[in-house]
PKD domain-containing protein (Attheya septentrionalis), 320 residues
Amino acid sequence: DGGIGEVTATVQVANIPPTIFLDSVSNEAGNTVGAGEDVGYTLVGLQIRSDVSFVDEGPDDTHTLFFDWGDGTIDTFLDLTPNLSSPFEDTHVFNVSSDFPFTVSVFDDDSGSALVSRTLMVVYMREALEILSASLENLVAALEADLDVGARKLAGVHASKGSDKAVKYVSKALTDLQGKGRGDGRSSAIAKAKKGEEPKKKQKYFHSSLGKIIHAMEYFEKAGPFLPGPYLSEVDVFRSELVLIAKAAAVEVYTLALSFQGEAGTSKKYLEGLVKFASSLDLGDNFRGNSVEDDRSAVKSYQDAIKALYLSRKFFHNEN
């Protein structure tokens, strides 16, 4: 009839939850951590870092972000910037070895949520050396296959000296780490680390284990000029992980020292040892990652840190 009517209605807009992405989980060397990543483990006593980002189509939403590290630690962050993305980072140090369920979740102020998760394998020094050695063993086998080492031996044909040296030096590094039989060699880094699991022997054998690690790194350095390109980055990861393993060993000795601090009292020798430890540890951190030579110097600094605590060894049982 040409009239004008009016209708009142309520429109309810559904909330769209945020979307979250686990950009990376990495260790102090910058290697990514997790199944299928650069390394499958992280070390007790060393820092691990997680980077996440999220987006939300709600223009006025605010968000709360939870990093649950799986060991009872939950870090909370508030995102006071409406709509748009992060990224956010959080760091953590695990104090015991285990497999931890790591979860990052985000909640908006309309009860929308999203989460990402990853299992983190946290290990001590010896376990890390065993894992790393097994991976290095696979690398040696792949390197031999690529260079046709077995076929050439059967045929009595020699390849270039460079190819032979690449396999030779990496194999020698592997022997330094695990011996000739997966840690059975009594002088290998793994065997010495295993002996160091007894508290009273920790300083002595961890110090010796780091000596073998330094030796292995020297072989990596010798192998470098002869390695085919695809293997160089893998060896760089091995080398950087050996540096972190050395630091983890020093931190483990330091943790033991602190647990005996009451027995040692505050003697001048003890305090001097702690100061020298901290100085050597800082020096190692400054060296680390700058070059092949600096990485080796970093391990030597961590070894010196252990020695500094040994010189103030009143905190070790029955070693006064």
